Amino acid sequence: MVTLKTLETLESLSPLPPLSSTTQKMRKLLHYILIILLSLPISATAQTSAEIQALQREQEALKKQIADSERLLSSTKNDVQSQLSNLMIIEGRMAEQQRYVKNLESIVKDLRRNIKTQQSEINRLTAELNVCKAQFQKAVVYMFRNKLTQSTWQFVFSAKDYRTMYKRLRYVTEYSKYQRAQGEIIKDKEKQIRKEQELLQRKKKQQEALLAEGKKVRSELQAQQKDRQATVNKLKKRQSQLSKTVAQQRKKNQQLDRQIETLIQKEIAEAERRRKEAERLAKKPGTSSSQKAQKYKEDVAAQNKLAATFEANKGKFSAPITGSYVISGKFGTYSVQGLKGVQLDNKGINLTGKKGAKARTIFDGTVTAIFKLGGMYNIIVSHGKYMTVYCNLTNVSVKQGQKVKTHQTLGTVATDSGGNATLQFQIRLGKNKLNPQQWLIR
């Protein structure tokens, strides 16, 4: 493509003979147009932002999770425990739907901003195109008015010598190239505008679809709210039995927590004993003692590396239960809205899945403890200084001391009276209890 630099190089070879006023004006006009064209930016077609694409991926995952959780059974039994389980499942579904709506709102917000940017880009390209067309039209009109199309060869052959004639011929050739290049620029601008307009229309249609989807999910949320209120009303009528059931459940949880605390304390004490033994052996002369101390250091380094990797994956771990599930029990102490005096306490979270669901480890580690309480198995897996706990299993498929890999099956989750399987899952850092929801991908 011809450039301003090309023409300047041609003119600097040697002075041209005096040109007519018409030719001088033509040259000035040519330079002016090229300066404008070369200074105009060529915009790449704007693409949907990476942020919107990430939100869309999350939206699809949430949509699938909601559809899967709807397949969980709602108990038809009227006993307090079954109705309380129903209430927890409903609340879990509602929480997912609320997240879904919030995610939709974020996508729509980003799309609106993106559409605005897209329209600005179209306006900018249109303005550039208008400038190009105006200058092209001006150049063509000028040529015809001054009969430059007829006088081109006269201009060339009027040169006083061969060298000057050759330079004029090159000048005329470059000008022709410039005209063709200017036409190509106009075509490119028009093509860009068409692409931007098509992309804009796709985004507007996507926005309309998302708004319709949001309206649908809000309607479903209202229906879920009615189901929740109906369940709460049933439980209110049996307040004394509800209080008794919650107290029994709290007592069972306290027994479980005490057992877990005891085993973790035992593991911490054993780690301290090994540390002191390694220090003693390091001071003791002899090859055997030195080798044992070195082995301990290597083990500690490996455990620290494992813990660091575990920590680096916070928010990325898959669920510790197979199949579809809903979080039916939150972390910490909380009250149940609508039920007076009902306070639940959870050292981890509850994940309710379908009958036959398996518990699986979320990361590489070692099975440090397997114990039975209330007829159910519970497993503790260590990941360096971190530990994960899997409770309420009817059977186990691992042994104490066994090395396990990510997603390895640990056992089958017990089925409740409603026909669902609920796993209680905990994450510990030493004596500290962590909120598992912050560690799982969702």
SSE order, one letter for each helix or strand: HHHHHHHHEEEEEEEEEEEE
Using the CA coordinates, give the radius of gyration.
Answer: 38 Å
Task: Determine the structural class based on helices, strands and strand pairing.
Answer: alpha+beta
Number of domains: 2
Shape: elongated
β-strand percent reads 15-25%
Biggest β-sheet description: 10 strands, antiparallel
Count of distinct strands: 12
Poorly predicted ranges: 1-27, 29-47
How many helices?
8
Average pLDDT rating: 77
Portion of residues within helices: 55-70%
Distance between the termini: 53 Å
Structure description:
- The protein has helices at 4-12, 21-39, 50-69, 80-145, 148-157, 162-236, 239-283, 287-312; strands spanning 325-329, 332-335, 343-346, 349-354, 358-360, 365-373, 376-383, 386-396, 403-404, 409-413, 420-429, 432-434.
- The chain is 61% helix and 16% strand.
- The chain is elongated, with a radius of gyration of 38 Å.
- A hairpin with a 2-residue loop joins strand 7 and strand 8 (386-396).
- The relative contact order is 0.11.
Give the helices and strands, then pairings.
Blueprint: H1 4-12, H2 21-39, H3 50-69, H4 80-145, H5 148-157, H6 162-236, H7 239-283, H8 287-312, E1 325-329, E2 332-335, E3 343-346, E4 349-354, E5 358-360, E6 365-373, E7 376-383, E8 386-396, E9 403-404, E10 409-413, E11 420-429, E12 432-434
Antiparallel strand pairs: 1-4, 2-3, 4-11, 5-10, 6-7, 6-9, 7-8, 8-10, 8-11, 11-12
Helix pairs in contact: 1-6, 2-4, 3-4, 4-6, 5-6, 7-8
